[in-house]
Design brief:
The chain has 4 helices and 7 strands. It is α+β, with helices and mostly antiparallel strands and 173 residues long. The strands form 2 sheets. Strands 1-2-3-4 form a 4-stranded antiparallel beta sheet. A 3-stranded antiparallel beta sheet has the order 5-6-7, covered by helices on one side.
């Protein structure tokens, strides 16, 4: 019996790849105009290329666990070794950020492979990934902002109902 594997392409890696190609085109055009400015753009290209190597291009979720694939390494988490999975929202820069694009699921657990400095146990957040993680692990993903907001309003509603009941009880007596 084969286990169905679900492949996900990392959208953060795709954005980095697009930026890299844009920077390469800018570098070529600047090298034609001025070599020194072209060299500065080439340095930006190298930084972006470094990011392409450090970000995982894809990850796989199946019945055994989660595997995060990098260019030169792999990070594997078995479901039995995952303590919890939580949402990590992209950090705002100067109060603004691109919502959803850089949000990730952070995996808290023991990796099967040796951890390298660039391995963070994070995968891109998506509805499909959430459903599969909750299905295979049997655990609810924590840290959703919408869940916190729902809990706040439910608590507020329960408090209002309790005060209404108390007022009705006081009117009766």
């Amino acid at each position: 019996m084969s286990i169905k594997k679900h492949f996900f392409i990392n959208r953060i890696w795709i954005v980095t790849l697009l930026i890299f190609f844009l920077l390469v085109m800018m570098t070529v055009s600047f090298f034609k105009e001025d070599v020194i400015i072209g060299i500065l753009w080439l340095l930006l290209d190298l930084v972006c290329l470094f990011g392409l190597v450090l970000f995982p291009p894809f990850f796989v979720i199946d019945g055994r666990g989660i595997r995060i694939h990098y260019f030169f390494a792999k990070e594997s988490y078995l479901w039995k070794n995952i303590n919890w999975v939580e949402v990590r929202y992209s950090p705002p820069t100067r109060g603004k950020c691109i919502p959803y694009l850089f949000d990730t699921f952070t995996i808290n657990g023991k990796s099967e492979e040796k951890k390298r400095f660039f391995m963070q146990g994070e995968i891109a957040r998506s509805r499909r990934a959430r459903k599969l993680i909750e299905k295979y692990s049997g655990k609810k993903i924590e840290g959703y902002f919408s869940d916190d907001v729902k809990a706040f309003f439910e608590k507020r509603k329960a408090k209002k109902e309790k005060t209404k009941k108390q007022k009705k009880h006081q009117k009766r007596t």
